[in-house]
């Protein structure tokens, strides 16, 4: 949590997108994540995972990098390709480009090939939501301009009644 958590001061690399942990299919991303974790544990001769031990900090971080490599190898995750908008301040452009390169991403001058586009600061009142995926009567809500880790599961209401629970009908 100190090194990779949500409020980590100087994380060694960028966290994996949370969507990778929601793919429960037999050959999906979660399967490959767990496979890479157990392979690394076996290769190291560990009997169990110990994520809280300070003595294993470097080995645990290396294990996380192996997971990312396995996902990239399976084409389940791509290294971010970042486009920086022209209307960003020059000082901020340089800072973003340096950070992207430091974290192993690529910077592009072509907006069409980018996986991520960096805009100048926007009005926070424009924040909206989008339904990302559904499972039964639940749906995963993604808040625009927020990281995936802020996503929440909610109830999917029928299209004909989007703003409230289903109405109860009276019996005669």
Verbal overview:
There is one protein chain. With 172 residues, the protein is an alpha/beta fold. Helix content is 27%, strand content 16%. The protein has helices at residues 29-44, 57-73, 90-102; strands at residues 81-84, 106-108, 116-118, 129-135, 138-143, 152-155. The strands form 2 sheets. The chain has a 3-stranded parallel β-sheet with strand order 2-1-3, with helices on one face. Strand 1 (81-84), helix 3 and strand 2 (106-108) form a beta-alpha-beta unit. Helix 1 packs across helix 2 (57-73). Mean pLDDT is 81; it is low at 160-164.
- Percent helix, as a range, is 25-40%
Q: H/E order of the elements?
A: HHEHEEEEE
Gyration radius over CA: 21 Å
Shape designation: globular
Give the strand line-up of the largest sheet.
2-1-3
How many strand elements?
Answer: 6
> What is the beta-strand fraction?
15-25%
Mean pLDDT: 81
Weakly predicted, low-confidence segments = 160-164
Instruction: Please summarize the sheet with the most strands.
Output: 3 strands, parallel
Structural class: alpha/beta
State the separation between the terminal residues, measured CA to CA. Answer: 58 Å
Total of DSSP H or I helical runs spanning 4+ residues? 3
Question: How is this fold's topology laid out?
Answer:
Elements: H1 29-44, H2 57-73, E1 81-84, H3 90-102, E2 106-108, E3 116-118, E4 129-135, E5 138-143, E6 152-155
Helix pairs in contact: 1-2
In short:
By secondary structure, the protein is of the alpha/beta class.
Notable traits:
alpha/beta, 172 residues, 3-stranded parallel beta sheet, single chain, 6 strands, 3-stranded antiparallel beta sheet, 3 helices
């Amino acid at each position: 949590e100190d090194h990779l958590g949500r409020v980590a001061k100087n994380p060694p690399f960028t966290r994996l997108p949370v969507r990778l942990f929601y793919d429960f299919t037999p050959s999906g991303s979660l399967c490959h994540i767990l496979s890479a974790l157990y392979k690394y544990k076996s290769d190291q001769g560990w009997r169990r995972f110990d994520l809280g031990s300070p003595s294993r900090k470097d080995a645990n971080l290396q294990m996380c990098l192996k997971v990312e490599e396995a996902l990239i190898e399976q084409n389940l995750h791509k290294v971010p390709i970042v486009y920086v908008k022209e209307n960003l301040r020059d000082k901020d452009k340089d800072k973003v480009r340096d950070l992207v390169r430091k974290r192993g991403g690529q910077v592009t001058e072509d907006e069409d090939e980018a996986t991520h586009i960096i805009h100048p600061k926007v009005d926070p009142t424009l924040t909206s939501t989008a339904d990302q995926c559904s499972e039964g009567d639940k749906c995963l809500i993604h808040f625009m301009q927020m990281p995936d880790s802020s996503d929440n599961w909610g109830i999917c209401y029928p299209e004909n009644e989007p703003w409230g629970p289903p109405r109860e009908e009276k019996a005669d």
